[in-house]
Structures are given as C-alpha cells and as structure tokens.
Amino acid sequence: MSFVFIAFALVTASTAYSQNVPLERLIEYLEIDTINPPGNESRGVTFFQRIFEEAGIDYEAVESAPGRGNIWARLEGEGDEPALVLLHHIDVVPASREYWDTDPLQAVISDGMLYARGTSDTKSLGIMHLEAFLYLHRNNIALNRDVIFMATADEEAGGFFGAGWLIENRPEIFEGVGYLLNEGGGATLMENDQIQLAIEVAQKRPYWLRLIATDVPGHGSVPRTTSATTRLIAALNRIQQTPFEPHITATVRAMFARLAPNMPPQWQPAMSNIDEAILDPEFLRVLQEERPGFHSLIRNTCSITILSASEKINVVSPEASAELDCRILPDQDAGEFISGIRDRIADDQIEIEEIMLFGPAESSADTDLYRMMSRVIEERYASVNIVPSAMTGFTDSHFFRDLGIISYGFNPTIFPDGIGSNIHGNNERIPVEAFNQGVELMIDVVREFVEE
C-alpha cells in the first residue's frame, strides 16, 4: 500500500523546514545504545545537550543514578495557561542480533522502512517532540504557556529512575503543568483509505503480585498429600479457571464504538453494543481467542509469568512461588481485586506479596487540548477516524495523571493496515515517510495549542 496519497492530504505550517534534519537526528539517536538494562540514558542526554547548546536553549540534566540521565528544557510563555510537557523516554528494550535481519543498534533504511531498536518505542516520538520544540524557539513563536521538552530514563523498567524520580526529587519542574503529550495511541491507514488515529486516554493499572506457598519439605521419592508446589499449582489453577467478571468502562465503550465501522462485518454489531455482547459467554471466548488485546480491556486479568520452587529434582521444596502480572481496569478498586484473588487462592498457607501497584490512570477527553488535537488532525486529513483509546499496558503517563496532569498518548506515525511496528520485537521499524509526516503534524498540533 502506498503512502503517496497521504502526503497530498497534509498541509502544514512546517513544510518549509527540511525533512532531512529530523531524519538525520533520528538516525543518530537510534545508534546511541540506551538498552535497558543497564540503560545508560546519559548517552542520550549528551545527544540532546549538544542540540540545545547549538540552538542556544537553556536546559537542565540530572542523573538519578550513575548513567541514568534525564534532561529537560523549558520555553517560557508570555501567557499564564497551564504548561505543556512533551515527554518521551530515552531507554529501549534489549534486542538479540541473531533474530534481527539487521543490527538493532544500526539504523538501516530498506524499502522505505527505517529499522533499529527504538524506532517506535520511543526515539522517533522524541525527535518529533524535539522538532516541535525547536520550531517554536527558532521562529520566536509567542507562547500562551510554558512548553517543556523532557527525555527520561528507565520507562521500560517502571520509570523509577526517570519520570518517577523527577516527580519525587524535582517536583518544582511540574509546578503549573496542566498537560502532557507522551507515547501511546497510534495511527493506521485502513484499506478504505481512512486513517484511524487513536489518542490514548486510559491505561489498565498494573498490580504485580507474588504468591508464596509453604509446606513440609522432603525427598522427591516420598510424595506427601500436599506440598508447597502442589498448593501453588492448585491456587494458580483456581485463579486461571475463575476469570473476573466483564466490566465496560466509559472509555472502552467509546473506543469500541468508534472502532466498529472499520472492523470486519462479523465484529461490528458486538463492538457497537459491547455492553450487550459481553453477556454472551461464547462471544467472550471468541474475543479472547481471536482478539486478546480487546478482551483484556473488558475485565481485570492476571498472567502467570514466573514460577520458582526446588533447585534440585529430587528435593520437595519447603517453598514455591509464582509472580503474576495482574492488570485492573482504571475504575476498579484495588482492595476488592486483591480480596477476589484471596478468595480464589483459598489456602491459608499461601501468602500474597504486593510487588507493584499504580494509581488509576485515565484522563478525560473533554479538554481543550483533546478538542484542539482532533480539530487539527481533521483539518489535515481528508478522512480520519479519531478514537479515544485505552491501553492494556502502561507508560510514564500514570505518574503525571496521579498529579492531576491531563496526559495523552499521541503518536501521529501512520502505519498501513497489516504492517506493524514490531514494537519490543524483532526488526522494529517505522515508515520513513510516515515519520516525516508525523514530525509535521506534531509541530502543527503543538504550535496550535501553545501559540499566543
């Protein structure tokens, strides 16, 4: 599928700026090794420091731990509207060279696609933010609010050396901040030539748990009626065989209704009326089997991800443990959820440890920023369906939503339907032309919101 016709639908104030510069910056940024662990995000900070110094922009940088760099710069506005933060993370997930067609730390362009670790998550977004920020500075745009560019460490491991650390240790940065644009969302060119663009407004809350079962140890040749391992297995089976009841949040209801017209015909009625559809057990089964991402948005879930017991095959261990990646819907009570887990375990020799729990992570779509973004996007594209979306995963936005900051996941990179970014996978990629257009749209969205 060609991208050619998209280009004629997009007219921006930024087209006079050479597209080569952002792409060259992205290529350089991608080839800076910031794989987490260990992170080494200070390497990325050095990259931004050079650019800001060349542009004559003041910035601040700090390490939350050795090598764990964070950087931010502020353009001060003449007005007193709540400030806007442009946030992305510097770190990327590991990549195994043997499973890639190219070196993941070498940016390679092939057949119109740019391949490297971090192309989609989130170095391309970081360059889009950078170009919008530099555009405002370069053109002396009068601002109705402060605009903050921010690149942080450690998002891929929870953000505790990055966004979370800055909020705790440098809270003054965020005084007066009302809005934030971050990763999340996405855009797809559908087969009917309509662009479907999702703006992330909500995320499920991670509630990571460790279950620890204890019982009498012994020799593997003399099995007892119970053991730590068998207790744990039985409890895990009860959790998996007793799913939580479906529950539709307002965001998911609106999301599915907006997605329905572009879905295959057999899915359209259910997506248009999801509250009724979830009453059918067969629909729930098919939804989980064929569209597990959608299924995960309609109920609380737990995935068993780590198991540990004896270190020796002939030893019955006194202890066995499992770690669960549970995700709860943003409007659900964590206390009620953990009570439901205890009811399913139903074994007083199994202890529950809380590893991590985030607060509710949802922002209203009824804001000036969301309406402005929608208007600018609709003016730029001949046919576009804008979808307020929810995520099963989480981003650093939850830190800022906890502060009452309206946070949206907005990534204007358009992928053809059926061609994915391979985010966190092998051969991560981004269409070069879509990146260039994303830069232009990001500039226009930011300028429209912050210009006096």
From TrEMBL:
Keywords: Hydrolase, Metal-binding, Protease, Zinc
Record has Metal-binding as a keyword: yes
InterPro entries, per database record: ArgE/DapE_CS (IPR001261), Bact_exopeptidase_dim_dom (IPR036264), Pept_M20A (IPR047177), Peptidase_M20 (IPR002933), Peptidase_M20_dimer (IPR011650)
One Pfam family, short name: M20_dimer
Gene Ontology molecular function terms on file: metal ion binding; peptidase activity
GO BP term, pick one: proteolysis
UniProt keyword Cytoplasm present: no
Highest taxon of the lineage: Bacteria
Domain Peptidase M20 dimerisation: 208-349
Record-linked PROSITE patterns: ARGE_DAPE_CPG2_2
Identification of the protein by name: Peptidase M20
Source taxonomy: Bacteria, Pseudomonadati, Pseudomonadota, Gammaproteobacteria, SAR86 cluster
